[in-house]
Design brief:
With 604 residues, the chain is an alpha/beta fold. It contains 20 helices and 25 strands. It folds into three domains: 260 residues, Aconitase, domain 3 (2-Layer Sandwich); 146 residues, Aconitase, domain 3, CATH 3.30.499; 159 residues, Aconitase, domain 4. The strands form six sheets. Strands 22-21-20-19-23-24-25 form a seven-stranded mixed β-sheet. The protein has a five-stranded parallel β-sheet with strand order 4-3-2-5-6, sandwiched between helices. Helix 2 links the parallel strand 2 and strand 3.
Length: 604
């Protein structure tokens, strides 16, 4: 029986010739990165546990979240990383370099068939070149830096074939937004997606990056593109490492196969709050915008900016609208300058910043204010993710056209006179503190239930990005759920030992460790959900915080604030109010071993 693309990459980096879905294996990591917001915590973990970097030549820092250092806490964390790097000969891609995952491709640090990890939850963007990339929390990254490998559970694979030729004007961003409209945020949760079809073979690197960058928003582990001859040639020109591209076996086994007809794809926009809430641009009512943003790891590439320039050339941004443009890397920035794109952008009235993540990670450019409506090429529009306003997601074409028109539209529907504003009427690094001894780790817990019957509770709802610089474990609990509607006072009402029960895809979104640590900081003893975001589940397991999944709880007539008793090893769950019992999915062996030793780094 053959292996899928991800199975072959994982097997080649493990001690096994063959791996299959569900196997838990140690994987050698070819490239290991930490960013500015997670890097200081990685350094602290290494120092606290007396670990040294296994191979500095395979280890890097990237300062892409706040590359201006405009936030004091970011600036402090960046300097912590610089000093650590200087002492150990580690490469730092500093505030002038750009987005880490893009740098890893441009600098040849990743290539077809290679493996990489980063504190960036969009490290799976590296699937664009047929590489295995994963975003992980700071404990995982510290483990990878200290030992050169991490444990990983081999995922099942889904094969998606794109058939047909898309209509004129359909961009890669439209392709992935159409895919999100089909699959939503959790249909492909935990799967590795492998792309196929004639249209895929002809896609450029920039197109592949755009699509791969939104795997996280689908709940997928990664979107992998089999490398074309053009991609292989590009990667060989960038790296000094020899490699052979990896492809799935002809008899590879897939959990499911999907065929999508690209002739049905339309230019799409994601409505505020959920990336998968997609609709055709032309079906939106006239939506006035305050600001527009072109950039991020999804659409800050050269092809994206050339497309935007072709629309903005000879035009002006609508009065009162702010357009912010942020190239993905210094290489792209310099190309824009040489090709005259910056002149076009400036004459149109846009603001240009140095390369980086920009507004997506509460960075240097792109945040919006309360009540502000933004059209963005980013990959996330969770409430509060890019500021306090509303964020629509779209392609560079739609964003540039909307900036000129003053409302959300396409390039072929820009009016001769832009929509203007009317006067308003009177308005009515650091310790997580999670280490503990075996004796402190009970295998049975009893607590009051918080029954939150919602799917896709993301990390910004759990622990908002405005608190990302907080690294003191004792401070985190007070901010738990303060961005989740209906539960903003949760931290004040929750009691010691309480248990949270939620729906599907709990913890989707960012790789931030704080979204796990805030619960034990507050005294919450466990989170039970129908399913978890992949990075979130890893972070919880590695921090020895109990997270378990269930299929159904209907048989025990569970109500909010009921008291339950749960055996972590058997999954036996009892509702103390009525005596009814059921069984949920218990700890698996690897999870229990990490739990017993008080966390992943306890005995590394």
């Amino acid at each position: 029986m053959g292996m899928t693309l991800i199975e072959k990459i994982i097997a080649a980096h493990s001690k096994y010739d063959v791996v299959k879905p569900g196997d838990i294996v140690d994987i050698v990591i070819d490239s290991r990165a930490a960013r500015d917001f997670g890097g200081a915590n990685v350094v602290k973990n290494l120092n606290d546990f007396g670990l040294e970097v296994a191979d500095p030549s395979k280890t890097i820092f990237t300062f892409d979240c706040n590359p201006t250092g405009s936030d004091q806490k970011y600036a402090v964390n960046q300097q912590i990383c610089r000093l650590y790097a200087r002492d150990r000969g580690i490469q730092v891609y500093d505030i002038n370099a750009g987005i880490g995952t893009h740098i890893m491709i441009e600098q040849g640090l990743v290539y077809p068939g290679s493996t990489a990890v980063s504190t960036d939850s969009h490290a799976n963007i590296l699937g664009a070149v047929g590489a295995f990339g994963q975003g992980m929390g700071d404990m995982d990254i510290a483990a990878a830096w200290g030992s050169g490998s991490v444990w990983f559970k081999v995922p099942e694979s889904v094969l998606i074939e794109l058939k047909g030729k898309p209509a004129k004007g359909i961009t890669a961003k439209d392709v992935v937004l159409n895919m999100l409209g089909v699959f939503g945020a959790n249909t492909l949760l935990g799967y590795s997606i492998e792309m196929s079809g004639e249209a895929v073979e002809s896609m450029s690197l920039d197109d592949r990056i755009t699509i791969a960058s939104m795997a996280t928003e689908m709940g997928a582990i990664i979107i992998l593109f089999p490398p074309s001859e053009e991609i292989v040639k590009y990667c060989r020109s960038k790296t000094n490492r020899s490699f052979m591209p990896v492809y799935a076996d002809s008899d590879a086994q897939y959990a499911r196969k999907e065929v999508l007809d690209m002739t049905t794809f339309r230019r799409m926009v994601s409505r505020p709050g959920e990336p998968h809430d997609t609709v055709e641009v032309t079906s939106l009512p006239e939506t006035k915008i305050d600001s527009a943003f072109i950039g991020s790891c999804t659409n800050g590439r050269m092809e994206d900016l050339r497309l935007a320039a072709s629309i903005l050339k000879g035009r002006k941004i609508a009065p009162g609208v702010v357009l912010k443009i942020v190239p993905s890397t210094d290489e792209v920035w310099n190309l824009c300058m040489r090709e005259g794109l910056f002149e076009i952008f400036k004459e149109a009235g846009a603001m240009i910043s140095n390369p980086g993540c920009a507004g997506c990670a509460a960075g240097q450019v792109g945040q919006n204010g309360k009540g502000e409506v933004t059209i963005s090429t980013g990959n996330r529009n969770f409430p509060g993710k890019q500021g306090q306003g509303s964020v629509f997601l779209a392609s560079p074409e739609v964003v540039a056209a909307s900036a000129v028109a003053g409302f959300i539209t396409t390039a072929d529907n820009i009016p001769a006179t832009p929509l203007t504003f009317t006067p308003r009427t009177k308005e009515s690094a650091v310790s997580h503190g999670t280490e503990s001894s075996v004796e402190d780790k009970p295998t049975s817990i009893t607590g009051k239930v918080w029954l939150i019957e919602r799917d896709n509770i993301d990390t910004d709802m759990i622990f908002h990005n405005r608190y990302l610089a907080i690294t003191d474990f004792t401070e985190m609990g007070q901010y738990t759920f303060d961005n989740l509607e209906g539960y903003k006072d949760f931290a004040k009402r929750a009691g010691q030992g309480d248990i949270v029960i939620a729906g599907k895809n709990f913890g989707s979104g960012s790789s931030r460790q704080q979204a796990v640590d805030c619960f034990p900081s507050l005294g919450v003893s466990a989170v039970i959900a129908n399913s978890f975001g992949a990075i979130y589940e890893r972070n919880a397991i590695n921090a020895a915080f109990p997270v378990l999944t269930y299929d159904s709880l209907e048989s025990i007539d569970l109500k909010d604030q009921d008291i339950i008793t749960l055996d972590l090893l058997t999954g036996d769950l009892r509702n103390e109010r009525n005596g009814l019992t059921t069984r949920i999915n218990p700890f698996y062996d690897a999870q229990y071993e990490i739990y017993k030793k008080g966390g992943l780094l306890g005995k590394l």
